[in-house]
Design brief:
The structure is a single chain. 11% of the residues lie in helices and 34% in strands. It is mainly β and 154 residues long. The protein has one domain: glutathione-dependent formaldehyde- activating enzyme (gfa), CATH 3.90.1590. The strands form 2 sheets. The protein has a 7-stranded mixed β-sheet. Strands 1-2-5 form a 3-stranded antiparallel β-sheet, with no helix packed on it. It binds zinc ion (2 copies). One zinc ion (ZN) binds next to helix 1.
Amino acid sequence: MSAPYLGRCFCGDIRYRVTQEPITYYLCHCTECQQRTGSAFALSLWVRRASLEVLAGEPSKYVVGPEGGKTKTACYCARCTARLWGEPAAAPDLAIVQPGTLDQPTGLEPVAHIWTRSAQPWFVFPPDAVKYEVQPPDMAELALLWQRRNPTSG
Ligand SMILES: [Zn+2]
Ligand SMILES: [Zn+2]
């Protein structure tokens, strides 16, 4: 797996691609992510916003937050409502892609689990998982973990 990564919403109205390697990829077990996704955790694939290109359709946007003091714009498909990525207001260079919308999400693997304190009790962590009980003190740590795991990316 290497860039570009192609993705689309559930109905296919919106198609996009990521032209550079991701910055990091992690799993968040916080209660806000659980509620937002209607699931047990959220997957977050960080990419450079400049590397994210819309190929077809136009994502709808709504402003989320402030959640934990942070505001972001969620980009989603107005027709099928699939969320595609988020654009944090405080980090204009960053987009956080929902990796389940990639055509081939299986080639990428999260490097860490955050907010494990609120993980569902039945969730089984991989034996070598890197875990943070709450928010990591510095998200750059997750980018470093990603670089170590994927030395050719960057
Ligand atoms: Zn759609
Ligand atoms: Zn979260």
